[in-house]
Specification:
Length: 250
């Protein structure tokens, strides 16, 4: 299985740190941010990884190299202009399209049992499985709902074409930044391919949902932090340094 880490962003919410340092290399409890998703993937035997780069991307490539010191094989997808999540994935299609693959945001710190999420994805025969969590601020960030089977019925403003066959109460959830995808997901990007820059969350997944595609949510209630702001970065560092959180893959 292969994976992609999305690391091309400007990191504007982490300025002034990211004026001279790419977000992926911002230190978190003594490690560059990108080491956490890399180590998570390696822990589960995923060693072929592509990373998209843009802002100060040469620094990321210089630090990680070909991945040898981490026991990985790392390739790079360089974006002269930011392509957003969908455009970045589509550009990396030649690397990813052979089989099931994982996509992780670089600014996510998560203690996820990835094997459980992959098993769920396969059991559901999903085209896309998003790792989701409950959050009191879900509406602020963009929430979604799943039915009792884990199938996503509402994704932001998009809804599934038919009601759920089960009447379980739907859960309000938010996306963690980890997803498991089948190559078929690229079929739902065809309409966007001419406009290189597009989003999976605003464009691809709503299209998949409206088409009745197999879009599922794997619910995760363990430790998760978004590392995209100075405040969340500080909170994550405190949790790790004070021993309140111990990531199983380190």
């Amino acid at each position: 299985m292969k994976a992609m880490i999305l690391a091309a962003g400007l990191g504007t919410r982490l300025r002034p740190i990211t004026d001279r340092l790419p977000k992926a290399l911002v230190p978190v409890a003594g490690r560059p941010m990108i080491e956490y998703p890399l180590r998570l993937l390696r822990h589960y035997g995923i060693r072929d990884i592509i990373i998209n780069l843009h802002h100060l991307g040469d620094q990321v490539e210089a630090y990680l190299g070909a991945g040898d010191k981490f026991g990985l094989r790392i390739a790079y997808s360089k974006e002269t202009e930011l392509l957003d999540t969908g455009g970045g994935l589509l550009k990396a299609k030649p690397f990813l399209a052979g089989a099931t693959f994982i996509v992780v945001n670089t600014d996510v710190l998560i203690d996820l049992p990835l094997c459980d999420a992959i098993e769920f994805h396969r059991r559901k025969a999903a085209t896309a499985t998003l790792v989701l969590r409950t959050d009191p601020h879900a509406q602020r960030y963009g929430s979604m709902s799943t039915d009792g089977c884990g199938r996503i019925r509402r994704f932001l403003e998009a809804t599934a074409p038919a009601p759920s066959p089960r009447r379980d109460r739907e859960s309000e959830l938010m996306f963690t930044g980890v997803q498991i995808l089948e190559p078929e997901i690229f079929d739902f990007m065809a309409a966007d391919s001419a406009a290189e820059k597009f989003s999976t969350t605003r464009d691809t997944y709503p299209r998949l949902l409206r088409a009745g595609g197999a879009l599922y949510g794997f619910r995760f209630d363990g430790f998760w932090r978004d590392l995209g702001t100075l405040e969340s970065l500080r909170e994550a560092e405190e949790s790790l340094e004070q021993g309140r959180v111990k990531l199983h893959y380190l």
